Every structure is written in C-alpha cells, then in structure tokens.
Amino acid sequence: MANDPAETAIEATCCVVGGGPAGMMLGVLLARAGLDVMVLEKHADFLRDFRGDTIHPSTLELMHELGILDDLLKQPYVPAPTIGGDIAGTTVTVADFRHLPVRCGFVAFMPQWDFLNFMAAYGARFPGFRLKMRHEATDLVEEAGRVAGVRASSPDGPVTIRADLVVACDGRHSTLRARAGFAVTDIGAPMDVMWFRLPRRPDDVAESLGVFVPGGMLVTIDRGDYWQCAYVIPKGSADTLRAAGLPAFRAGVARIKPAFANRVEAIADWDAVKLLTVTVDRLPRWHRPGLLCIGDAAHAMSPIGGVGINLAVQDAVAAANILAAPLAERRADDAVLARVQARREWPTVVTQRLQVLIQNRVVARVLGATEALSVPLPLRLLQWFPPLRRLPARLIGMGVRPEHIATPEAPRPAPAR
Ligand SMILES: Cc1cc2nc3c(=O)[nH]c(=O)nc-3n(C[C@H](O)[C@H](O)[C@H](O)COP(=O)(O)OP(=O)(O)OC[C@H]3O[C@@H](n4cnc5c(N)ncnc54)[C@H](O)[C@@H]3O)c2cc1C
C-alpha cells in the first residue's frame, strides 16, 4: 500500500501494539535492554473497568527481579494468601499461596490501571521507551512479503510507524492478527459475564470470592470502597436477561448473595451493567516475518482461575528474553519469532485445557443446575488435606512455566552536567 504523503512517519526498532499487561511488560523490558520501542495504546488512559485485577505471585517475583517490588506494593492492593469459593453455603478454600517459593505468597488484587500506570512510569526511566496513548493501530504496513510497520490513527491524524518488528499485544479482539490473516482456532466458552459495581460497607467481610448456587454464579472482587461483581450467565443469554428487566436481574444477584440484597438497588440502569463476552481461542501460528502475536492476541483466555494476565506477562518476559539480542543486531527473523511461540505454546495449551475442563465440568453444570449443589470430591479433598491446596496455588500463582528476566539492563547515559 502506498504511503499517504500527509501521514506522519515514525521509526522504531520494535513497535508494540496494545498497552495491556503483555504490551507494557514487553515494551518496558525491551527499552530497559537498550532498545528503541514504541508502545501504541488506543485509549487515552488505562482506566478501564473490565480488566482483571490480579497480580500473581510470579509477576510479583518478576517485579522483585527488576528491583521494583517494594515500589509496586506501595500502590493500593488487597493481598489474597488463599482463594476459594462458597458452594451453596459451604465455604471452600481452593488454593493456598503461602507456601510458594517466592517473596510474595499471595495474589495482589490491584486495579489493573494502577499496575499499568506503574509500569508506564517505570518505562519512562529508559530513553528508548515511547508510550503513545490514543494511538490505535488500524493496519499493517507490508513490504516485500514482510510486515514493516503499522498504520495508526492518532489525535494528530494518521501516522505510520516503521519497525523491524511489530508485536501484536492488542488483546482478544486483535485488529492486527485479523489484518495479518492468521487462522484462529476457536475453543469456545459456555458463559459470558455481566460486570457491575456494588457499594462496599465497612462491616462487609473483606474477601474476594466466587459464590455458586443452582443456576447462578457470582464473583465478587474487593476493590476497597466497592465490590466489583462478575455475574456469570450462560453464553448468549444477555438479551433474554435484559428482556426480563432490571428488577429480575437485581433479584438474581440477591438470590446468589443474600448479603447484597440490601444494596442491589444501586444498579441504577442497564448502563451500569456491562456485558463481557468470554472467548477462548488460540492461533496455530503466532508469527510471520516482521510480526509476532503474544498474550490474548495469540490466545484469548477465559477468566477461569484468573490466570490470563499472568500468562500475558510470562509471554512478554519470554519474548523479551528471546528477542532483545536479535533485535539489537537487526536479525529478528521468522526463526527467532518461532522460538517465542515454541517456548510459550505448551504452557498456553495446558492452561487453556484446564480452563476448559473447569468451564465444562463446573461452570456449565452450575449454570444448568436446578437441584441443590454439593461440593465436588476434588474440592472436598482439598478441605480434608490442606497441603493439597498447594497444587492449584502453583498453577494459578506461578503458571505452568514461570519465566525469569534474562535481559540485562543497558547502561543509561549519565545525566548532562
Ligand atoms: C470477564 C473477564 C474477566 C477476566 N478476569 C481476569 C482476572 O481477574 N485475572 C486474570 O489474570 N485474567 C483475567 N481475564 C483474562 C485477562 O483479561 C486477559 O487474559 C489479559 O488481559 C490479557 O492481557 P493482554 O495484554 O494480552 O491483552 P489486554 O489486557 O486485552 O490488553 C490489550 C490492550 O490493547 C489495546 N488495544 C486493542 N486494540 C488496539 C489497537 N488496535 N491499537 C492500539 N491498542 C489497542 C487495548 O485497549 C488494551 O489496553 C479475564 C477475562 C475476561 C473476559
């Protein structure tokens, strides 16, 4: 495609598209290694309500490896040393993070905008880090059979970013993977999520929890002064739910969690309830010359287990470890990109299989249940033998293949006198 002469053209060694957990982590790590990186984020800020809020023990460990853990933990967060649920009135503990071989034996519930703002501020320490907000990638620039950059819209008009490598970190509705024509294997999910807030009262028990009753499921995330609620519904049933009216919706929430009956009126209208469609998919091939997909752009994750952010961050660390030196030497060819997929594909496959198992065995059954629920045997075993809770803690908290920072920090120029 010919360049429009009115378009601004910018150059970068690597252009990262998407300022979510994958994109911010990758951009920061490459800039820290001395590379010239441009991160494009289509929104004006990170203040989106519907991002997951979990910072896992393995991500906290990475922060320690970078020497910024103490600073991160100065942000507001709620530590969860264990996670569990309430199944028809019985409280169960599923994972106990306190025994993990890391500095922080807990999941930090931290609003994701705080985490991303923190990473943006950390990235700004490195001269090669350029974060461009309100820049939405709209297309790829292709030359001689390879991706040579992206086109984006910006507040100042269209812009072209030419780069040796474009990394698509633009999430589960990735524009770039569609433009690249990548095949997508749809794995499917039996549920969607209605996402809304309810006020938190001083005497509420401060605990993020999944509550399961026959035909209903509600996850409540403690955000300090309010509860972020995820009301899980059968896939595609949002219109039926809306047609039944807001009073019925409020009653549905109160049925699952009676302690919220005194505040469901705070859901003033349907604008306060966002539909989040759940997708689980994977690209058979994550790359082509000049372009790599990671995070949800390569493999959209289900919310089950709250592990998608962890996987996105781990992808970014592995990608930085593998790409930093070849990018510096301008030899990040397709074989190098294939190494990133080879390293991260099986952790992705294993994690998605576990998510699908839980989606089908637990979520679909609970949503379809009409009779009283009982605590399934594997969960009962976890209550009888607490050390068994270390296994789910490992899977959720560390992931299947935890990564470590291997990119060195490039020396920074001394400040001018
Ligand atoms: C309902 C729901 C709840 C979830 N809860 C959790 C949870 O609690 N814990 C957890 O670990 N995981 C959770 N997940 C999964 C998790 O959200 C994802 O796996 C994770 O966010 C993936 O990170 P990412 O950086 O790859 O993509 P994203 O977080 O989706 O980030 C993509 C970024 O790219 C930007 N962008 C998109 N298109 C463009 C473009 N064209 N140009 C420029 N920028 C663009 C977006 O604005 C966004 O900032 C949940 C998923 C769902 C559906």
Which structural category do the helix and sheet elements fall into? alpha+beta
**Whole-number count of domains:** 2
Number of helices: 11
Helix content: 25-40%
Poorly predicted parts:
none
* Largest sheet report: 8 strands, mixed
By CATH, the topology of the largest domain is: FAD/NAD(P)-binding domain
Mind telling me the C-alpha Rg? 22 Å
What's the architecture of the largest domain, going by CATH?
3-Layer(bba) Sandwich
Hetero groups in this structure are:
flavin-adenine dinucleotide
Distance between the termini: 47 Å
3D structure, described in words:
The chain is α+β, with helices and mostly antiparallel strands and 417 residues long. It has 2 domains: 8-81 and 110-187 and 280-360, FAD/NAD(P)-binding domain (3-Layer(bba) Sandwich); 191-234 and 236-277. 32% of the residues lie in helices and 27% in strands. The protein is built from 11 helices and 20 strands. The protein has helices spanning 21-32, 57-66, 69-72, 112-123, 175-179, 238-243, 246-256, 308-328, 334-368, 377-384, 390-397, and strands spanning 8-17, 37-41, 54-55, 78-80, 82-87, 90-96, 107-109, 129-133, 136-143, 146-154, 157-168, 185-186, 191-199, 209-213, 216-222, 226-234, 274-277, 281-282, 287-288, 291-293. The strands form 4 sheets. Strands 1, 2, 8, 9, 10, 11, 19 and 20 form an 8-stranded mixed sheet that branches. Helix 1 packs parallel to helix 4, helix 1 (21-32) packs parallel to helix 8 and helix 8 (308-328) runs antiparallel to helix 9 (334-368). Flavin-adenine dinucleotide (FAD) is lined by residues 17-23, 40-43, 51-54, 136-137, 169-171, 175, 193, 276, 278, 295-297, 301, 303, 306-310, 312. Flavin-adenine dinucleotide (FAD) binds at residues 17-23, 40-43, 51-54, 136-137, 169-171, 175, 193, 276, 278, 295-297, 301, 303, 306-310, 312.
